[in-house]
Amino acid sequence: MKDVDYFRLAANSTRKWRDMEMRLLEESGCHDLSYRPQTGMSSLGWVLAHQASVYDFSLNMLIKAGPPKNPELFKLYTPGTSGDWAGTSKDEIETYYNSGEKDLLNWIDSASESDLERKIEKGKAPSYFVGMTVREVITSTFTHLDYHTGHLTALRKEWEKSRE
C-alpha cells in the first residue's frame, strides 16, 4: 500500500466515524453548540471547531511552516483555550473542517517521498513535533482527530443521559 492510499484510508475512516457521531448527535436532539457536560469536558462547538483547527495546524503550520489558513478561528479553538464555544456557526465550522481536510489530502496527493521524509525543525513547531517526519505528522493528525471524535461520542452520551 502506498502512503497516499494509507492516508486516504485513514481520512475516510476518520470522516466516517465523525459523520456518524454528528448524525447521532442530531438524532439525539443535541443541536446546542454551547452544550458542555457536567464532567467539564469542552463544549460541542469547541470540539468540532478544534477538529478543524487540527487540520489547519497540521498542514499550514507544521508541514508548510507558515501561518494558519484561518487565524481567527484557529486562535479561538486551540489547546489551552477555555473549551467554550465562541459562537461560531455550525456551517462555518463545517466549512473550515471540510476545507482543511481537502487541503491536506490535496497536499498528500502531490507530495514526494522526500516531502514525506522531511523532518520538522526546531523553532518551527512545538517541541512534541520537532524531529517528526511529515509522514508522522500526518499520522498524528488522524489520531488527534479520532481522539476528539471520541469526545463527540462522550458528549452525546452525556447529553442523552441528562435527558433521561
The geometry reads as globular
What is the gyration radius calculated from CA atoms? 16 Å
| CATH fold assignment | Four Helix Bundle (Hemerythrin (Met), subunit A)
Q: End-to-end span in angstroms?
A: 47 Å
Largest sheet: none
Spans of 5+ residues with little confidence (pLDDT < 50)? none
Total of domains: 1
Number of strands: 0
Q: If classified by CATH, what would the architecture be?
A: Up-down Bundle
N to C succession of SSEs: HHHHHH
How many helical elements?
6
Secondary structural class: mainly alpha
Rounded mean pLDDT score? 96
Strand content: under 5%
CATH class: Mainly Alpha
User: Could you name the CATH homologous superfamily?
Assistant: dinb family like domain
What is the percent of helical residues?
Answer: 55-70%
Characterize the structure shown.
By secondary structure, the protein is mainly α. The protein has a single domain, classed as Up-down Bundle (Four Helix Bundle (Hemerythrin (Met), subunit A)). The chain has helices at 3-28, 44-63, 71-76, 90-110, 113-117, 134-162. It is globular, with a radius of gyration of 16 Å. The mean pLDDT is 96.
